[in-house]
Amino acid sequence: MQSSVIAERHGSEVTGCPVMDHDFSRARELGAYWALANELRESCPHFYNRYEGGGYWVFTRHEAVRDIYKTPQVFSSASITPWEPDPIYRFVPTQVDAPDHIKYRRILNPWFSPKAMEAAAPMMREICRSYIEPLVPKGRCNFIQEFALLFPTAAFLTVIGVPISYTEQFAKWVDEFFGGFGGDPAGAEAMARALSEMRVFWTEQLADRRGKPATDGDLFSYLLNSTFDEKPLDENVLLDMCTVLTLAGLDTTRAELGYMFHHLALNPDDRRRLAEDPAIVPLAVEETLRYYTIIFGDGRKVTQDIEFHGVQLKQGDMVYGLVSGANRDPRHWDRADEFVIDRERNNHFGFASGPHRCLGMHLARREMAIAVQEWLSVIPDFELDSETELMERGGGAMMALDRLPLRWEVGA
Amino acid sequence: MKLQVSESCVGHGRCYTLAPQLLDCDDEGYVTIRGGDPIEVPEDLHELAENVVGSCPESAITLIDD
Predict the structure, then answer these.
(1) Searching chain B, which residue's CA lies closest to the CA of residue A355?
(2) Which of A91, A298, A403, B6 has the highest local Cβ count within 10 Å?
(3) How far is B30 from chain A (nearest CA, A)?
(4) pLDDT band at A189, cuts 50/70/90?
(5) Is 0.90 surpassed by the pTM of this model?
(6) ipTM of the assembly?
(7) From CA A156, how far away is CA A149, in angstroms rounded?
(8) Of B25, B51, B58, which is closest to A344 when you measure between CB atoms?
């Protein structure tokens, strides 16, 4: 139901809807962010969230989140973080709008297409096995550090043509970068260092290949030989692209794998079902992306004054589509609050929606499916190995478990 | 029954993953019939086609009854 009162902001005064002061960045106990999203969605369709020095509109339900994604001409990606309306960084093509956005995507799409990922699958499977095999006789592991951070990193590096020996270095950079999102000064320092070390690495890789013909399977040489409006890509754009590919491609898959394996550790029936019927693994992956979405919300910047779902938005306002609320909204979903392992009608927003849908989605879902199939084929039964409560990183970046201790019987 | 995909397809790939009997993708990951003519859905695949419609985050897929 649409409210008949239009919410509006006059300077610091907001009328017509609740005003809140939620901090979405701090670590909470596992599952707390989805519980919060449920609570916010059921208490109001939209509210105004304040932080020190500003605020933004939060839309909590499926219909509005869908419409934000469907209307990129109104909801610009110039900033995707609602508490940073004018960011100093620029992710390419993440923060680029039409008409340039699609030109970048057309360069990158074929590299990460389903056909390209299909071709890379046997290699990914081999890498996956190489990480699982040494774990089997140990009978326990910290799933995040010993598998979920490493396998997607190694698979990604191989897909873009970087030697697999850089895996641990990349895993460290990505961990340090996202460790800095919590706001503590030590974390911020490590984050800045990781970012600059990564840029040095990309700069060197690009320099090695400049002026040479494109080499098969090498993303850098492909990008150096690609054109934008018939001109080579600018050096800064190349670096922005490489950085966002790394940051978006590695941390996210580790996070989704963490939640998926936490679910499997606690749900033996689902585990057995997947082990017996590997064909439904892709459906289980999609359901993981719906039910355990790591995107708490997705920000956009308003390009024009417009009335939207009962709110009078002004040009320059920031909005936050609560993806975690939309993905479990009972107004849209049948059995919304249930993990349905073989759900077929699953149009979740776990990879976002609209023109900016996740570039690496075909890579990510394939990595997840391979991880589950390979793991269950050698470790069909496992359980949680922690006496203390697991915590999740806040939704300021993407939600993620920092550890997931698992144990299983050896030689059973 | 016919199935049609509009220009708003952005290449999520859930339709052709769910129904490879009906749909395929191009080199960028878009469904090949994006923005094109409708295709015929055989009778034994009607239920699957309905699930395909419900799996598209862009609401880009429509079914046309004969």
Answers:
(1) B10
(2) A298
(3) 9
(4) confident
(5) yes
(6) 0.95
(7) 11
(8) B51
